[in-house]
Design goal:
The protein is α/β, with parallel strands linked by helices. The strands form six sheets. The protein has a four-stranded mixed beta sheet. A hairpin with a 3-residue loop joins strand 4 and strand 5.
Length: about 425
């Protein structure tokens, strides 16, 4: 197993250009593919997850061509050319869930599968919702989980489609993005509390850019109008990734001053609200045009925070808690358990390695920092990019740390450790 040994660091400074947002990149790719006409996408994230989406779209007959500035997607007007395909989607939830919905409405024969961890990530609620609309989807192994076989089916969306909102917002995103293919008016009713609402905001915002305006009644009902049709966008710029920004904003608050380019206060990404949480902990945050900066806190304050709105970025708060003046509690994060790994258990396990006292609840984590961080801890990353990136910040406590399997960051930020090395001293 490859390891990365990070030296102790006490100070950070520098300017960083963020990679493109994964959430925006994969949504944009699929919407452009379903649209009528050609869309040029600039600033697209280059990562394992986006590579899997691009490969899948190519296998479905979508023509993709590179330009000097980005990539042009030739849309299929809601009708994929290839009606039979075998799609390997790695561990990319932002590709697997939306493609499942789109292909369920595409009258074709498709096999969707991924890495072993993807086959442990639940998809049963989405499949049941699609089945209630007439889709024919079969489980090829354990019921409720990938891999899946999708067959041609007669789709009827005349009745409301119900979907649970408390497992993954990607299920609702998948339905929203796919339903315009049917050309019929469709109503989605969310059962239970909808988690990660800002990610649904991203979905609705991007759908509107491509000409489909969803009617929303609170967070419980969504109506896709009849005769909806995605229309191409001449040129669409992908924002810098706000989730990735969290590591560098945190680094600035812990140990110096960082200026980040590629995202600002007008971002459509909910994870930018991480900056508000960081400010609660004492970080100094400033916004500019297409940039945001973070400066060292005079004291890192412990917080008790509902993190439903920033589930991914909340992982970074768990590391900042190691530098706080008391016990930090992060709540409403049950979705951590169905991500790339069971992040609640993984985070609790690895935080203890560096000396923290941790209580792991069903949907919360409580972290009391040690008086002194334990040096030379070996951090397991569980093939989870965010675990690797989060724990790099421990080195800012002046202790060396080893990251096992550092290349797992290729999922969303292949050059992360190079970027991190450029800001520490």
């Amino acid at each position: 197993m490859e390891q990365l040994h990070l030296k102790p660091a006490l100070q950070v400074s520098g300017v960083l250009q963020l990679p493109g947002s994964k959430s925006i990149s994969n949504r944009t790719l699929l919407l452009a593919a379903l649209a009528k006409g050609n869309t040029e996408i600039r600033g697209l994230l280059k990562s394992d997850d986006t590579d899997r989406m691009l490969e899948a779209l190519a296998a479905l007959g979508i023509r993709l061509s590179e330009t000097v500035h980005g990539i042009v997607v030739e849309g299929c007007n809601g009708n994929f050319k290839n009606k039979q395909a075998d799609l390997f989607l790695g561990n990319a939830g932002t590709a697997f869930r939306p493609l499942t919905s789109a292909l369920a409405f595409s009258n074709g024969d498709y096999h969707l599968h991924g890495v072993p961890r993807m086959h442990e990530r639940p998809i049963g609620d989405l499949v049941s919702a699609l089945a209630n609309a007439g889709a024919q989807i079969d489980y090829l192994a354990e019921a409720g989980f990938p891999p899946l076989h999708i067959s041609p089916a007669r789709i009827d969306v005349s009745k409301p489609i119900q979907i649970r909102g408390d497992v993954s917002s990607q299920f609702l995103t998948a339905l929203l993005m796919a339903l315009p293919i049917t050309g019929q008016q469709a109503t989605i009713q969310v059962v239970g509390e909808l988690i990660s609402k800002p990610y649904i905001e991203i979905t609705l915002n991007l759908m509107a850019k491509f000409g489909v305006h969803v009617q929303r009644e609170g967070w419980q009902q969504f109506i896709v109008p009849a005769n909806s049709q995605y229309r191409s966008v001449d040129c669409l710029y992908v924002e810098g990734d706000a989730s990735s920004a969290s590591y560098f904003l945190a680094a600035g608050a812990i140990g110096g001053s960082i200026n980040i380019h590629g995202v600002d206060a007008n971002s459509i990404q909910g994870d930018l609200q991480f900056a508000d949480a960081l400010a609660l902990m004492g970080g100094e945050i400033r916004y500019g045009e297409n940039q945001i900066s973070s400066s060292k806190a005079s004291k890192i304050k412990a917080i008790d925070l509902d993190c439903n709105h920033i589930p991914d970025a909340a992982m970074t708060l768990a590391i900042v808690a190691l530098f706080a003046d008391g016990t930090t509690t992060l709540r409403n994060i049950a979705s951590w358990r169905v991500k790339e790994t069971d992040r609640l258990t993984a985070m609790a396990t690895e935080l203890r390695k560096v000396g923290a006292s941790v209580i792991e609840g069903e949907d919360y984590i409580r972290i009391t920092p040690p008086k002194q961080l334990i040096a030379n801890a070996q951090i397991d990353t569980y093939d989870d990019h965010r675990m690797a990136m989060c724990f790099s910040l421990v080195s800012l406590g002046g202790v060396p740390i080893t990251i096992n399997d550092p290349n797992c960051v290729a999922k969303t930020f292949p050059t992360y450790f190079e970027a991190f090395a450029n800001i520490v001293s």
